[in-house]
Amino acid sequence: MPELPEVEVTRRGVAPHIEGRAVRDLVLRREGLRWPFPPGLADALRGRTIAATGRRGKYLLIHFEHGTLIVHLGMSGHLRVLPPGIPAEKHDHVDLVVEDTGGQQVLRMTDPRRFGAVLWHANEDGDIEEHALLRGLGVEPLGPEFSGELLYRESRSRGAAVKQVLMAGDIVVGVGNIYCSESLFRAGINPRTPANRISRARYDRLAQAIREVLAEAIVQGGSTLRDFISVNGQSGYFQQSYFVYDRAGVPCRVCGAPVRQIKQGQRSTFYCVTCQK
Ligand code: ZN
Asked: Which residues hold their Cβ within 5 A of ligand 1, which is an ion?
């Protein structure tokens, strides 16, 4: 599943190819994905210029003067920039065709499992941050509002395990299963610790670890960026070398104790009982 770093790398990869370009056409090959496509969407976009791209959590935002296209990659979706004329295959559901110097380029959305989304938010409906899908989201982990102080303050009334509190996404977005396990390892915090029992100093370390883990994933993804924009590029989800994630029973890279796997809220958590207290 694409996580925040993949979405950010996708945004950075496609941005230079679509920002400032006018939309020639929008081709929708189905009625919708997770939700129906908005009626009249192609008409709303044709001839309009893409002002900028953005991201909120795992939502990619394509801003126009009159509104914002909200794209979610679901479980299996990805975007590629292609030259025109490449036939769509079975799972290629959406093409955003933009003007290019002397021609066109195609931003193609492929989504085999069809849990993705393409939605429209018109400016006249209010601030994009107030969209139903966005307004409950926590702060951006790589943004200025995120800090150990925020984690500490927001967790005082939460006695659930810190991993589940982080993954709920209403304090901070984008700390998915992989990055949550890795960040807690890096901060030396046992994922089962009740969130309201963790000190301010340890939350400072955790916030720092979350920033580092996500930033490193983005840098690593950036090195595979070419895959996003090539004709033959595959999904572009990147494999990193993890400290604990998906390493059950394997010696911890720091202390050598076997990495333990447990279930928390139906999700697998990986951690080191020696390094994480
Ligand atoms: Zn260890």
From this structure: 252, 254-255, 272, 274-275
Residue 251 CA, ligand 1 centroid: distance in Å: 8
Q: Choosing from 2, 5, 141, 191, which is the catalytic residue?
A: 2
Domain ranges of the chain: 4-130, 148-271
Extract long-range pairs of 232-241: CB within 8 Å, 24+ residues apart.
233/80, 235/76, 235/78, 236/6, 236/9, 236/10, 236/13, 236/78, 237/2, 237/6, 237/78, 238/5, 238/6, 238/9, 240/216
**Residues 65-104: tens digit of each pLDDT:** 999 999 999 988 889 999 999 999 999 999 999 998 889 9
**pLDDT digit string (tens) for 41-73?**
999 999 999 999 999 999 999 999 999 999 999
CATH topology of domain 4-130: N-terminal domain of MutM-like DNA repair proteins (3.20.190)
Q: pLDDT by residue (tens digit) across 136-176?
A: 999 999 999 999 999 999 999 999 999 999 999 999 999 99
- For residue 3, indicate whether it is catalytic: yes
Q: Tell whether domain 148-271 is in CATH 1.10.940.10.
A: no
